[in-house]
Hints:
Elements: E1 21-23, E2 30-32, H1 33-39, E3 62-65, E4 72-73, E5 91-94, H2 95-102, H3 116-120, H4 139-146, H5 150-163, H6 171-175, H7 177-183, H8 187-207, H9 215-223, H10 225-267, H11 274-277, H12 283-322
Antiparallel strand pairs: 1-2, 3-4, 3-5
Helix pairs in contact: 4-5, 7-8, 7-12, 8-10, 8-12
Amino acid sequence: MRYTGEKCPVCHKEFTAEDDIVVCPECGTPHHRDCYSLAGICANAELHATGVKWERKPRSARYRVCPVCSFPNRLTDNACQRCGAELTEATEQSAENFNTNSGEKSWRDTFSMPDAEELMNPIKFLGLDPDEDMGGATMKEMTDFVGPSTIYYIPKFKKMKDEGVKPSFNIFSLFFPTLFFANRKMWGWAVLAAILGIIFNIPSSLLVSNKSFPPEVLNFVSQNKSTIQLLSEIFVAADIAIRAIFCLFANWFYYRFTLNALKKLKKERRVQDIKSAGGVKPQNMVYITLIKYGISLLLVAALCMGYEMITTVRDFSDICLFR
């Protein structure tokens, strides 16, 4: 009978094919020869009078542990199910030893049913270490905070953490920077993008004939049309430049925003709020649109009032000079 994989009842180490094994003639319990000699008696001697015989225990599941991400794979796997790494150098461990050696990083049985989170996001960490420090927060905490689109953001965050500021394309922030920042709950950037968008749009709005403007403003526009046209072209170029910056660095802004938000939550001992504090909130896009519209109305009103004040002061000056 082969005892490879069974445990010696004295030293509790697994038998290997090279071990010298002796078997108790009474109950059939296998021992290392040295262990049996050291004890001088069968480890199960107290059971001999009961007639109980040694039985082979059901072997626990064994895994090929990935050398890259430590995921337990089946013995028949040649590549890691989690990160895709080759398993040529993988170590074979039993489920019991794996859970004991890996501590908090222990994985569930590969062959058991996946939990709800795995069904929703089966490649959550993309082969990366969930406990890696990303600059004040772990990879797992950043993944929980980002929520949707982790497959897009987490590799970029990892690269930024390793290499520093890295430009990367974010097409949504190129065309709709205000909506992008608001959706990701980055209100500071959202309001800044909204204000810049409004300012850059003022000259072109003035050039469009609009009966909602007071006659005095329309009169001013007609008298200074060439200047406003030049200003409009400058502002259009500035708007394109700002959008290009948002497109290239929005992911970096989001990376820093995520880190700062997580540090604040951990400092306030609100780790349980990470998922609710992060993620996306589409309603914010409606809110920022209303805010942008309100700022536009206030700005137009301010321009009209300013123009009327200037006109009044100028008329009053003319009257004083006439006198």
